[in-house]
Amino acid sequence: MMGSDYSAIGRMLLLLQLLPGILAWGKEGHYAICKIAEGLLNEEAAGAVKVLLPEYADGELAAVCSWADEIRFHYHWSGPLHYIDTPDFRCNYKYCRDCHDSSGRKDRCVTGAVYNYSEQLITYQDTVSKLKYNLTEALLFLSHFIGDVHQPLHVGFTGDEGGNTILVHWYRRKSNLHHVWDTMIIESALKTFYNSDLSVMIQAIQANISDGWSSDISSWENCASGYAACPNPYASESISLACKFAYRNATSGSILEDDYFLSRWPVVEKRLAQGGIRLAATLNRIFTYQPAVSDV
Ligand SMILES: [Zn+2]
């Protein structure tokens, strides 16, 4: 019995890997965010990440940034941690009002998860309290969820499940609006602009970071002093972008083509850049965190 159970799980995981991006920023989106972050880690964070990564990641954080999606059905409790549902048409987000799961349990949403796994990772320096947690899983969850909170429709409306129930066509393919923002826009950009080469797309985003966006970076990284993670503004930006760009001109039955793609890709590209920069800044703060004397 055990043997067949395991092979069923194995087949399911394999199937999930063959269907990239059915659950969150697609594999490409998460890979890009983590790859950008990897290039910006300070010495302490790079060292800690290396120690915490599972062996099969082969030293590459980007290789395991979709892990949280792959285990989502296996770790059933983790489902609500990938997103936030906000009130329909309000176009704003409030932690106290919105960060809960569908049965109302507080802190069970993507920003709550970013706080939780950041707090766990801060114990990395502390030989005693770090034993309470699985810090490898904490690192993989945190790296994934900082990505998710930057996907505008991961902070969408409750009534349409972040665009999941808005059925649209992406060119000639049937899709839904959530999936368009997780995967299809990136997929089309890869084909149209980057010769289907993800590493070329990532290099283009990195070039934009050091060129066009260089003066924005310090404000993107900003976090109130004493805090390691600051996910609330990222969620507010996401719902605002969802209203301005994702939901606009996209209702059930819409056929989304060049007009939509070409005007939304710059938004997606910037969110991937911000996700990468903020993941690196968060990990850099976590692994250089020195508890204040009064906390010791
Ligand atoms: Zn996710």
From TrEMBL:
Signal peptide: 1-24
InterPro entries given in the database record: PLipase_C/P1_nuclease_dom_sf, S1/P1nuclease
GO biological process, one term: DNA catabolic process
EC number(s) stated in the UniProt entry for this protein: 3.1.30.1
Reactions listed under catalytic activity: Endonucleolytic cleavage to 5'-phosphomononucleotide and 5'-phosphooligonucleotide end-products
Entry keyword set: Disulfide bond, Endonuclease, Glycoprotein, Hydrolase, Metal-binding, Nuclease, Signal
PANTHER family per UniProt: ENDONUCLEASE 4 (PTHR33146:SF26)
Protein name: Aspergillus nuclease S1
Taxonomic source organism: Protea cynaroides
